[in-house]
Amino acid sequence: MASIFTKIIRGELPCYKVAENETHIAFLDINPVAEGHTLIIPKEEIDYLFDLPDTLLADTILFAKKVALAIDNALGPVRTGVVLDGREVPHAHIHLVPIYSDTQSVSLGRKLDIPGEIMQEIANKIAAEVNL
Ligand code: 5GP
C-alpha cells in the first residue's frame, strides 16, 4: 500500500506545499512543533533514509539545504534544525525545524495548534523564498 506521503505526492491527499521538483517534495508537517516545521521527502518510496542510494541521499540533503535557507529567509529563525526519526511514516523524510530561541528544544515532542489559514500563509512565505 502506498505511504501517506506517496498519496500526497500523487495529489490524492492535500498538503501545505513549500517546494517540489522531479525527485523531491517539501511540505509543512501537519503536526508542527514550530512554525514552519517542514518535511523533506524523496518521491521514491523507500522506508529508511539511510537505505537511499548515495546519489538520491545527496540530492535529498541538497534539496533540504535549499528549503532550510528559504525558511531562514522567510521566517527569520535563529537557524533551522534537523530531526531524523521516521518511525511513524515508513517513507524516508527529514524534518526541518526552525529554531526561534536558545531555549527551544528541537524534538518532535510538543505539537503546536496552528490554524489552516496560517499554515497556508507560512507555506506561501517559504515557497516564495525557495530557489531550486
Ligand atoms: P516520523 O515518521 O519522522 O516519526 O514522523 C512523521 C511525521 O509526519 C510526523 O511529524 C507527522 O506529524 C507527519 N505526518 C503524518 N501524516 C501526515 C500527513 O498526512 N500530512 C503531513 N503534512 N504530515 C504528516
How would you briefly describe this protein structure?
By secondary structure, the protein is an alpha+beta fold.
Provide structural commentary.
The structure is a single chain. The chain has a single domain (4-129), classed as 2-Layer Sandwich (HIT family, subunit A), CATH 3.30.428.10. It has a five-stranded antiparallel sheet with strand order 1-2-3-5-4. With 132 residues, the chain is α+β, with helices and mostly antiparallel strands. α2 (54-75) packs across α3. It starts with a helix and ends with a helix. It has three helices and five strands. A hairpin with a 3-residue loop joins β1 and β2 (24-28). The longest helix has 22 residues, at 54-75. Helix content is 32%, strand content 19%. The protein binds guanosine-5'-monophosphate. Residues 4, 15, 27-31, 85-89, 108 line the site of guanosine-5'-monophosphate.
How are the strands of the largest sheet arranged? 1-2-3-5-4
Measured between the Cα atoms of the first and last residue, the distance is: 30 Å
What is the fourth-level CATH superfamily? HIT-like
Low-confidence stretches: none
Name the ligand types.
Answer: guanosine-5'-monophosphate
Task: State the CATH architecture.
Answer: 2-Layer Sandwich
Radius of gyration: 14 Å
Number of helical segments with 4 or more residues: 3
Instruction: Tell the overall outline.
Output: globular
Helix content: 25-40%
Strand content bin: 15-25%
CATH names the topology as HIT family, subunit A
Number of discrete domains: 1
